[in-house]
Amino acid sequence: MWQLLQIELFKIFRKSRTYISFGAIGAMVIIIQAALKYDGRSYIEFLVGGLKDSLEIPYANILNGYFVCFIILNLLLIHIPLLIALVAGDSIAGEANMGTLRLIVSKPVSRTQLMLVKFLATLIYTALLLIWLAFISLALSILFFGTNDILIARNDALEIIRANDVMWRYLAAFAFATVALSTVAALAFLLSVFAENSIGPIVLTISIVIVFTLLSEMQIPLYDRTIKPFLFTSHMLAWKGFFYTKVDAAGSAIPGTIENLGAIMKSFFVLMAYIAGFVSSAIIIFNRKDILS
Amino acid sequence: MLRQLMFIFTLFLPILSLHAQDPEVLIKNIREKLDKINDYQAEAGLKTNIPFLQVPDADVEVFYKKPDKIKIKNEKGISLVPKESVSISLYSLVNGKYQVIDAGSDLLNGTPVRVLKLLPANENADLVLATLYIDAAKTLVLKAKITTRENGTDEVDLSYGKYIQASLPDKIVFSFNTQDYKLPKGVTFDYDDGASKKNETGNQKNQRGKIELSFHTYRINRGLEDSIFK
Asked: Which chain B residues are closer than 8 Å to A259 by Cβ?
């Protein structure tokens, strides 16, 4: 099993397209950091809107590494699924396209085992991509901007979390984001079973993520009540829940608290159910498939 | 008999003095007390209760310099404080050119107070009306209601304790009108965790915010640079 995993990881990291994701994330993060370093004040002014006329806004303190990292994650975690799809969508379809799939399944390894190893390799790639994102978005931002309390801009509220209460939230958020992106990986993995080349599953995964994200964010009551709770894209945003704090009766935020841990856990289990559903479907279909390529 | 009469007189002295003092004299006495404070630097606890702001309590430093320079600094973190409310300076209030109207007496949390209304001499001034609730016996302002053209009515409640001799409060509570805060969901990409603040409080418009400053220590008249207030 371990040898099989090593082979799959070798296949993933031998392809140059694998590194496109790392390069793209690195470039995007550095571009955002440079822009915020140069003119972060304008972005904060945009976030606080008309409040800057009535509140003293300590711009220099707000523009710190924790805040910059949150902005980066807010912008990128919507787009990173596309990069995950590049590798996960290629997992089976890429082999079919190269004509090596028949060769692999003829080896003395069960198809289920093969699929599990391939998916595990995809998960390792996803985790590495997130570790890379965490390193450059959090560590580099802290290096360039320092640390302070973090300002979180929500749709209808501004929230401040003390600096000593932030790091564990990031760790939890990155761990959750790994699960969220694994759902996309599982979807692309499932679609990859049906295709003979990797373009199809990659494009289809990206299309599904885009459509579902739009439905999740459109705020149309009909969809909000019926479809939205079941879309995995609605639950992928739950990493942000770690940055929402409870307030006491006097309206002060309570340090060390999470506004609704139950909702985050629910989202976690929904995503896990999706992963289990996608992967087991992929295994069942692959086991029944007549492999001709 | 004479001693009994003296006792009764002493008992009613605060009430008699309450009505006896001329409003202008009362304002002058307060002005004289406040005039002794050129500047102060204070350590305080800050509690924020603004409907759209979720902020933990903070330790802050408050800087004041006569006549109206006030700055609240949170060296260890971020605090968002309203510009207008905290910049209300009692000193500049009682030193302005106003017509003082005696609005009689009242009780404020069980303390008998004189109510004075200040109307600005300049009818184009931003300040429309200031109402002061004054403990005449101690020559202390306990509450101020300030109505401005820009911000509506702000209120300041002052409680005195350790620093009463210097006419400096132990606690100040500012309450003020708040604006609505909204950002498009397409910008924030909020996670809907079912505990939205909006759902709890309903419409956020026309709500009042409150910030509470509890002073721990004051350092008075040590000299403060103007650069602190920039």
From this structure: 193, 195
Interface contact B181, partner A, CB < 8 A:
yes
The Cα of B130 is separated from the nearest Cα of chain A by a number of Å equal to 20
Q: Is A12 among the domain residues?
A: yes
d(CA B201, CA A195): 51
Helices A65-76 & A16-48, crossing angle to 10 degrees? 120
For A234-293, the pLDDT digits (tens) are 999 999 999 999 988 877 889 999 999 999 999 999 999 999 999 999 999 999 887 776
A156 vs B187, B197, B210: nearest CB: B197
Helix (DSSP H) and strand (DSSP E) numbers for chain B? 6, 12
- Angle (CA) A189-A108-A290 rounded to 5° is 50
How far apart, in whole angstroms, are the C-alpha atoms of residue B162 and residue A235?
A: 53
The CATH number that applies at residue B114 is 2.50.20
Domain range for A26: 2-288
Do B54 and A158 count as a contact with CB atoms less than 8 A apart? yes
Q: How many domains would you assign to chain A?
A: 1
Nearest to B104 by CA among B92, B88, B116: B116
Cβ neighbours for B6, distance < 8 A, ≥ 6 positions apart: none
Inter-chain touch B79–A58, beta carbons under 8 Å? yes
Q: Is residue B3 in some structural domain? A: no
Residue A241 with chain B: CB contacts under 8 Å: 191, 193
A285: Cβ contacts below 8 Å, ≥ 6 apart: A190, A193, A194
Q: How far is A187 from chain B (nearest CA, A)?
A: 22
- From chain B, the residues in CB contact with A253 under 8 A are 54-56
Nearest CA in chain B to A61: B78
Q: Is B78 on the interface with A (CB under 8 A)?
A: yes
ipTM of the complex: 0.74
SS3 A55: strand
Query: What is the pTM assigned to this prediction?
Result: 0.84
pLDDT digits (tens, 9 = 90+) for A165-186: 999 999 999 999 999 999 999 9
Which range of residues forms the domain containing residue B134? 18-229
Helices then strands, counting H and E runs in chain A, come out as: 15, 3
The total of structural domains in chain B comes to: 1
B184·A61 Cβ contact <8 A: no
- Tell me how close the Cα of B187 comes to any Cα of chain A, in angstroms: 8
Bridge partners of B155? Answer: B145, B175
Domain annotation covers residue A32: yes
Nearest CA in chain A to B198: A156
